[in-house]
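S., here's the first fold you wanted:
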Amino acid sequence: GRTVRSELPRAITAVRPLTRLSLVELSRTQADVQNTEKVELNLQTGRVRAEVRPVAGGRTEFTVRSSAATASVRGTIFEFDTLNLLVREGTVEFSGTKGAPVLVDSGRASYAEESTGQAVPPEEILVTELKPDLPVGVETTLSSQASPEVTIDFSVNVGF
């Protein structure tokens, strides 16, 4: 499949194949000297990558909603697949159907927990990734002996 690109005011949204996406709102208002562009999308299924750039001397409010979560930004690059969020640049305010929103910075991720409806703070995801499960039978108490330093190299590739 190929990626279809559509240009919205000051925002480029790359839509992956088999994605169902609808435009809920597209508006521009002017208060004093500041222009505000508002874009709201509803993502039913699939995955999008959004590049949102604020207008010079104004701002762009860009929101992607699914039935499980909402990602709102004012200038950034992020990927969203109805539950999972990955921020490439900037900061995204991310919320589930319940609970307070969390701020997700560049290079961080979050997801909406389906059972609770809450967005998981990116710090919790980072701790979980850095602290893998111990093998069966291994003690969880810390030893007084110093453990050797271990270096782990990894990479993450997200295809678009």
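And the second, which I think is the more interesting of the pair:
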Amino acid sequence: MGSAHIQGPLWGAAADDWAEHQEPTQAALYEATFDAIGLTNGTRLLDVGCGAGYALQLAAKRGADVAGFDASAGLLEVARRRLPDSDIRQGDVEQLPYGDDTFDAVTAFNSVQYASDPTTALRAIRRVARPGAPVAISTWGDPARCETSAVLGAMRSLMPPPPPGAGGPFALSAPGALEALAEAAGLTAETALDVPTPFVYVDATSALRATLASGPARIAIDHAGVDGVRDAVSAALAPFTAPDGHVRFDNVFRVVVARA
């Protein structure tokens, strides 16, 4: 069994909040990755872990022929509203429902580390990518360079102990971890880059709604209750809130571009 039955409900519990308040904060990561893989007019792109489809929208604006795949029914409902003519499917990343050698490029933004078996997930991605196609895998970078780790840490104290070996947001952040994973899956790692990706919110309310829509927040809410999680997150937001009310977390994401 793959990871969809666990991850899907977690990430789709507040899909509209995620789509409105969180996905746009990652635009810098999406655009830098598309530049790195040479995404252009006519590229047939699959985004694995597409969420509510914001990255796919940016790719479509470049002229790409986009398809999306995710575990969350709630997020995919938003993605289908955003991209009604695109191929948007739900399921387990370890078992992608596409033919061999289908896509010109594949992206996996901050998703592979949540698979029950990341190596199997990347092997599935390699299978559906055409030979020589770029495969871009991204994850959180060095936690010391990711200010959002303050919020994640605040929630961690309200979560149950994770199962042994369970991955988390920073499971693949160590130097060389993404490259090693790509190579283990039969991909050829070519380029690695760190992408500054500040999360900027118009106010603390927007930041709170974005954070509470995440999978880790849902785990904490189910374990400790929404009031306790809201209070912990609000306290963690305070040091990052400017006098004019906007909230900013400076982060760095790690991207590895490999070849199928």
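Why I say that: The two ends are 25 Å apart (CA to CA). The longest strand covers residues 188-196.

Talk tomorrow,
H.
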